[in-house]
Amino acid sequence: MxxxxxxxxxxxxxxxxxPSVPRPAPSQQPQPPAPPPANWQxxxxxxxxxxxxxxxxxxxxxxxxxLRCNRQAGTVTLTRTGSASSPALVVRTSDTARTLAASAGxxxxxxxxxxxxxxxxxxxxxxxxxxxxxxxxxxLYVPSWTEVSRVVQDCR
Length: 156
Prior knowledge:
By secondary structure, this protein is α+β, with helices and mostly antiparallel strands. The protein has one domain (45-155). It has three helices and ten strands, in the order αββββββββαββα. The strands form two sheets. The chain has a six-stranded antiparallel β-sheet with strand order 1-2-3-4-8-7, covered by helices on one side. Strand 9 (129-133) and strand 10 (140-143) form a beta hairpin. Helix 2 packs antiparallel against helix 3 (146-155). The protein starts with a helix and ends with a helix.
């Protein structure tokens, strides 16, 4: 046992480790938003679904976009919510793009499109989606589902 104690006395003491100094957490830099796609058709669809709310009327994304037939006037009213910096609405489809003079109201921008206007057909048959652009608001990428066609057909 004495030999064990003598042998243990020959082992050096463990080295002193300096106390660790806490490092500051790396600062999180906010990621810049992704650049918009070069082609609007590559942009992600605006979240939401179309829903028929009445004969000749449909809403998208809980009222973000509304299509409503006005049979007496022979028009389809397209409304998008939001306050635009100018009363213009660009409707962009896979085949065409048109700037429409809009009226600003309490619910957003509205345009009346003649029921037989080819723009309505372009919206209904656009390849997967159409875009609604208004100055000072986010562009909406709206799917061209059957509800669009139904509103147009109900109005013709």
